[in-house]
Specification:
The protein is of the alpha+beta class. The protein is built from ten helices and four strands; from the N terminus they run βββαβααααααααα.
Length: 211
């Protein structure tokens, strides 16, 4: 059997509760966790019980960090995990927090990926390939990415991306128009065949002649 330890003092402070075990500082808990557990002098804990209490405390801290992170903008599961790892939380605590966030409806990678795609389509159109790469960097699973970008049409997105740029090129000759628009669309991940078709279409629409 493992050893048991006894609470000899509980000292609430402004942002923490100091718990003394056998006369020594044993735990520092958040007021919320301390209140949930209901600590009192004379209460005893086994080693396993103390580990469970520490897990509860670290999970609470990690959840608070995650909620703060999510308050700025939606995040993928991978982004939240990465941030919590950098802040020193263990994998078991992180897994517990991720599950809790999903239960609360605050973490949904498909919803995140769809919102990310829609934002890009609205403000910075790019190719399906580049969207997939960006979502992978954010830790979204391949099968989720595939579902989110399934309806992306590269030629439509290239046209939308190139339309605004082409208006800035009115008055340029065909050679310069092609060069600048090709460079612009290439940086957004579109392949040559799509770029060629869209460039010719936009050249005609702004009053030029197709070559």
């Amino acid at each position: 059997m493992g050893s048991w330890r006894t609470i000899t003092a509980v000292k609430p402070q402004r942002r923490a509760v100091k718990v003394f075990l056998d006369g020594e500082l044993g735990l520092t808990l958040s007021p919320k966790v301390a209140a949930e557990v209901g600590l009192s002098v004379g209460q005893t804990f086994s080693e396993e019980g103390l580990r469970e209490l520490e897990f509860k405390e670290f999970s609470h801290r990690a959840l608070e960090k995650a909620l703060h992170l999510l308050s700025y903008r939606p995040r993928s599961e991978g982004e939240v995990k990465s941030r919590l790892r950098r802040q020193g939380f263990g994998e078991e605590v992180i897994a517990h927090v991720i599950e809790r966030l999903q239960e609360l409806g605050l973490l949904d990678d498909l919803a995140f990926a769809l919102a990310f795609k829609e934002s890009r389509e609205a403000f910075r159109p790019r190719s399906k390939r580049l969207l997939e790469r960006e979502l992978r960097r954010k830790g979204v699973a391949p099968e989720v990415i595939a579902e989110a970008v399934a309806d992306v049409d590269d030629e439509s997105e290239a046209y939308r991306a190139g339309l605004k740029k082409s208006r800035q090129l009115v008055g340029k000759d065909l050679s310069e128009f092609r060069r600048k628009l090709t460079t612009y669309l290439s940086r957004r991940g579109f392949d040559w065949e799509v770029i060629k078709a869209v460039t010719e279409r936009l050249w005609q629409e702004i009053g030029g002649e197709s070559s």
